[in-house]
Design brief:
alpha/beta, 5-stranded mixed sheet, globular
Amino acid sequence: MKLRSTLFPIVAALSLAGCGQKDTSAAASASSGPREIDISASDMMKYDVTAMDAKPGEDLKVVLTNAGSNPITVMGHNWVLLKAGSDPAAFAMAAVTAGAPYIPANLKDEIVAKVDLLGPHKSGEVDFKAPTTPGDYPYLCTFPAHFQSGMHGILTVK
């Protein structure tokens, strides 16, 4: 009986110790920075991530790694996110005629975010806010023939 009367105040004190404390999980996640999306590209002219989702206005960081071994002049890779409704095939064709770094000057206003052209075993990144308007936002590699070989994907904002 003496043990029970001694334990009760201790258990009660421990259970009440958490009362009144603030939940800091939201503050911790808000200060943790953007959500990172890692994408790898290879000499096979493919991204390993071809679909991603985001919330409107979400802070994102895309990290692109060129895992290939061919020189940048032969097999460079970039990542270009376009506005919803843009024509990625037309953008890719215009990029070819623009020459390196394969970003057509007359279509720059269609770009939401981009990672510059990377050589082998290099990584690049971009921090940006996802668009606030829900929809499908195409992304692509603008190096010649890469889009046509299937190096593209969609960011869906919902």
